[in-house]
Design a protein that fits this description.
Length: 296
């Protein structure tokens, strides 16, 4: 079953054979025996690629759950006899991971040196089960999910710009002024062609903006703001140090972009494993201390 799952994900028998450290004939035998036991074809084979049949797709999804449960049962038995050890697979929004979560993981591993953390940094909404992820830290609203959700709070945002840029262009006095400024546009964020702001009295403003620089990564936006390539909305945790040392300043401080939810997603079958629980509890405590992260 493990061989079948890896072939379904890789689509190549020789690649899986190398990964498992066996001959390709062994992989083929495993697949033939599994299909014979199940009684239906699970894979379609060509000279270049192996793909799942309709029956194979359904069987693959069930196999993932079964293998997770088998692994969980063994790990829970080991955890009852010894200190938590083994791997936890954590996925995190890329910029947040680089700026803060890596250091949180360092502290976690100092306390639990036998736990290995495999950190996956991506802004894509990946399939946690398919990718073998235990826990995911996500920014933004989440669609309905079969995952266990732990809300951590909200990430507050603000408008920023470099003092040198603002000295040349002048400082905006009201939201409507923003349309004449260069904006560092996040190309992977829906609606980034306008800035949405809330005033102190609750009035909402939607200002169309544009810019000659479009980026798809928060760290690139951070560098662009500091280099004076334009203004834009950003998370406080991404630029708090640049604000503190004067490389950036807040623009229209009385007006704020809406905050963004911060959540942990946990694969339900993994939630009871001791080392996963330890990492989740540690993240819950430490993420709430980051700049701009506040209770919902």
């Amino acid at each position: 079953m493990r061989t079948f799952v890896r072939v379904a994900e890789r689509g190549n028998l020789s690649m899986v054979a190398r990964e498992l450290g066996v001959g390709q004939s062994t992989v083929t035998r495993h697949l033939n025996e599994l299909e014979e036991a199940v009684g239906v074809p699970l894979l379609s084979r060509t000279t270049r690629r192996v793909t799942l049949t309709d029956e194979g797709s359904r069987y693959y999804a069930n196999c993932l759950q079964i293998l997770r449960l088998v692994e969980q049962a063994a790990e829970e038995a080991r955890d009852a006899r010894q200190a938590p050890a083994g791997a936890v697979r954590l996925s995190c929004t890329a910029a947040l991971g680089v700026m803060h979560i890596t250091r949180i993981i360092f502290d976690f591993q100092d306390k639990h040196p036998d736990i290995r953390v495999d950190l996956n940094l991506t802004d894509e909404r990946i399939d946690l089960v398919r990718e073998g992820i235990d826990v995911a830290l996500r920014l933004g609203p989440l669609a309905d999910s079969s995952m266990k959700l732990h809300a951590l709070g909200e990430s507050h945002r603000l408008l920023v710009g470099a003092p040198a840029y603002l000295s040349v262009q002048g400082r905006p006095e009201r939201p409507a002024d923003l349309s004449r400024y260069e904006t560092v546009v996040m190309s992977n964020v829906a609606g980034s062609d306008q800035i949405l702001l809330s005033s102190p009295n609750g009035t909402n403003h939607a200002i169309p903006v544009s810019g000659k620089l479009r980026v798809d990564h928060g760290l690139a936006a951070r560098e662009a703001f500091a280099a004076g390539r334009g203004i834009g909305p950003t998370h406080l945790w991404l630029v708090h140090d640049l604000l503190d040392n004067g490389q950036l300043e807040v623009v229209l401080g009385d007006y704020r972009p809406s905050p963004v939810p911060v959540s942990l997603l946990i694969v339900p079958e993994r939630a009871a494993i001791a080392r996963v629980r330890l990492l989740v509890d540690f993240l819950v405590a430490e993420v709430s201390k980051l700049p701009g992260i506040r209770p919902s």
